Amino acid sequence: MSTPQALQGVKVIEMGQLIAGPFAAKTLGDFGADVIKIEPPGSGDPLRNWRMVQNGTSVWWQVQSRNKRSIALNLRSADGQDIARKLIAEADVLVENFRPGTLEAWGLGWDALHALNPGLVMLRISGYGQTGPYRDRPGFGVVGEAMGGLRHLTGEPGRVPVRVGVSIGDTLAALHGCIGVLAALHHRKANGGLGQVVDVALHEAVFNVMESLIPEYSAFGAVREPAGSALPGITPSNAYNCTDGCVLVAGNGDSIFKRLMLAIDRPDLAHAPDLAVNAGRNQRAAELDAAIGSWTARHTVEEVITTLLAADVPVGRVYTAKDIAEDPHYRARDMLLQQTTRDGDTLEVPGIVPKLSATPGAIRSAAPHLGGDTDAVLRGMGLSDAQIATLRAQGVVA
Which InterPro entries does the annotation name (predicted)? Predict the structure, then answer.
């Protein structure tokens, strides 16, 4: 008997493309939801061709669209919109990341869909949200990262801010969207089966993880500035050069700091009364970083890690893709899984997060070809082969 999944029986319709909406739907699909992805005929989701391509398809696509079925449907046509309505009428969740007003122009706005399916939970991810003076502006994750306050803090002081090396604004929005969907599904059970809108703005998802940024400004007028690899106000926590690379050391706990200083042969700092708490260490942050950096600079990465782990100090190397692929801990926790694509290629892909003990997630199916499930989905709606052929000839489906 197969292991049950947490979202088994939940039907999700995914509209939109690229990262935020599709990442949210992928996450729901990993835990058992039946995800039907609507793509435009001909081109499909642009992510199919982003970054590195194998046999005509992006390997990123293979991760982002696993556990989904694809129907190629022209949403700009009246017949295509009618098919979408019928799909949504039977769905639990609709995920979309169009610019606000797009679905309304197609007759697929919240009011119309809620009347059609009162239990529908509608996740709407956009640059600036469904309301407010900026709602109609185009918005991508990078702009959300900037407006949310993150981009100002990334990089070295006095230099142009740099981006985090992944589309963090989009994925943060997607994860917040998943939280909203799960909360709305839970609420639906005790609310007469009524659904609701989950409105996620890219910049708000970023802003929500900005910790004490605003309270510090509110209380002290303090504007946090970029600090490179350090975390100002939490000392010591930084990256340090070794003879063959660099390590991250987090020695900011009071007892951890003492063990760290003893491990690097600085008992004077370990026992200094003013350094016993974080407030005192903040006053001498540059001195502490210099002391740690002087010690790490005389050792290899492996020597530093071995010494500090023996002292029970949090430390780690800066991992590359190769480091991750070769790490036994990743494999022990099933965070590197093998997936066979629809074209027969075998890829290693990221595993599923979080780990659920009773209803774990799983990769049930590989990412679909464009429109590869169109006929099956339409037949499931009761359409005959002749009707499907007519829709295909008219360019409504593909």
Answer: CoA-transferase_III_domain, CoA-Trfase_fam_III, CoA-Trfase_III_dom3_sf, CoA-Trfase_III_dom_1_sf
Can 170 be counted among the known catalytic residues? yes
270: its two tokens: 């370990």
pLDDT tens for residues 60-72? 999 999 999 999 9
CATH number (domain holding residue 310): 3.30.1540.10
* Strands 245-250 and 237-242, sheet pairing: antiparallel
The Cα 241–Cα 299 span in angstroms is 9
- Catalytic residue (choose from 34, 45, 92, 170): 170
Q: What is the Cα Rg of the chain in Å?
A: 25
| Cα–Cα distance for residue pair 93/184, rounded to 1 Å | 10
CB 257 within 8 A of CB 249: no
Alpha-carbon span 152 to 160, nearest angstrom = 9
Low-confidence ranges of the chain (pLDDT < 50): 1
Give the domain-ending residue among 298, 319, 340.
319
pTM of the model: 0.94
- Tally of residues, the chain: 398
For residues 171 and 167, give the distance between their C-alpha atoms in angstroms, rounded to a whole number.
7
